[in-house]
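Quick log. Single chain, no ligands specified.
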Amino acid sequence: MSDFILCPAAGPAIGIARRALADLSLIDDFCETSIDANYRLFLRGRVEISSDRRLVIIGEAFDAAGGRLSQESLDTAAHCADPLETVASRHWGQFVAVVVDAQTVRFYRDPSAGQGCYMCRVGRAFFAASSVDLLRLATGEDFEICRDGIIQALAYRDLRQDRTALKSVCELTPGCTASDQNEGVRYVWQPLADLEVGRALTHEEIAERLERALRVAVRAQTNGASRVMLELSGGLDSSLLAMLLADMAIDFTAVSYVGPDARDDESDFARAVCAHLGRQWRGSVLSADHIRLHKSAAAHLAWPSARLFTQLFDQAADRALDELGCDMIMSGGGGDGTFCYLPSSAPLIDCLGSWKTMLNSRAVVHDLALAHETTSAEIIWRALRRMILPHRLSWKRDGSFLSRETRRSLSRRACHRGIDLGCAPRGKCDHLKQMIGIHNHLDAYSAPRQDALRFPLVSRPVVEAALQIPTWQWFEGGRNRAPVRRLLADRLPPMISGRRSKGGFDAVIRDIFKQRSGEMKAHLHDGWLATEKIIDVDAVDEEFRRFQESGSGGINRLMVLWDTEMWVRAVRRRKVTRGLLEGSAIGGTRQSIAGRSPGDAPAAI
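-> predicted structure:
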């Protein structure tokens, strides 16, 4: 992705930014330009600027058909009464748009979430940057840990809002606008506003809408890549991408990450996909021995959102990229959320919500019971209970291993505000909630893998197409994600379209705990979370003891606590270096800005 720093044009701030970039020998990698009389921009990577210098697009932007943003389209948007609203309605991608309007600088971040944007104030001065490290560089601030932000991250893990776990730092959340005027963020992306409710779609309609959006996303995101590395697990999501890449004649090699336990090895599915498509396959074995236990995979973020074992995937992907000669990684990450992998009875409520569809309710009950491995009576009971709950986007509190005082300070549910639910049924709200939750994980990777990664299944065209499909129509024949299975049928081996199991790397996590649980227990017992009385130390100690004695326990939750503790320690000692800021934009790959050669700085806006 692209990098940017926005800082005041006057006063000491501009000098701090220039000196910091010069000290790290990065000043030549960034182009410097002005934003009216008040701000200056430092830019690196793909950037487009309108002819009147009013509108800047940082990152990759596409039109509805997946074509690159043209200068004509950019100029048209810049001349509209509200350029950001126009950009939001006509374009998608991985970008942040910046516009100057009446001496106010406003931002918009595309809901696909690939391009970061963080903001803060130091005194009265406003700053924005594409990463927390660049924000540190521009301001000279270290940013203290926000205790309340940590508690929110632990209690409502997949609810990501603008307030972060760093004091004074806000994130422009995907689909939102913000400005330098202390107005907060505002959602302009309203995916449920025009939702068609009360009508069942035919199989042909579903397949046509879904495949068209998928092809647009894949074509757009692979544009310019010489060779793609597909992270292929053999599950529905990554297999769907393999099929599309092959159908579209896009050169790719598949790489599967394999755990050390044979019981977790599902690479037979991935090999079957590649054999059917006639494509190269490569396996990469992950081992807990390669984990750096005290390194935080989220140290570069404003949230402790990355998991410890992410290191293993980053290491394996970096080796494969180099050895295979690929310049892009495609991942099926987020597909579960997009394709309504919903452990809920809410689809039944949606089906009963209209007289046009309620005749399908008996089959829906049966399908949900089979998919969730429970009884029809249980599905009906859950649906009845759910109907009395408020109609909203909310996340249930996870209070496990939190101290009593911490739990008392938290509400049972946290609500997401800003998205207009309109007349959307309850199941569709749950569907959207899953999609919002995946934003908490899309940036949880290290360079160079992070720079090369693309997630077409969470791109805006695919997300919006998936949201238009009624939730209950994602279940059929007792199986979830039915529309995807139909797309794969007769185009990939039956073992793929009929697959019910999901791969995982539980063995890697168990190995980490077996080898290092004593060390982890000691550090958590005396760490920042314990000192701040956020966690219940006795409960944590007891859970570690239970695991050491029986080999079972809540190790996933303990791993979250460990990740959070390591993030706090990493952030408190983090110093910005050139190595931390080196990405795909360095080393001669920086793309031209609005048609200029890479060596030419853009003119003043």
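The chain has three domains: 3-189, 204-500, 506-573.
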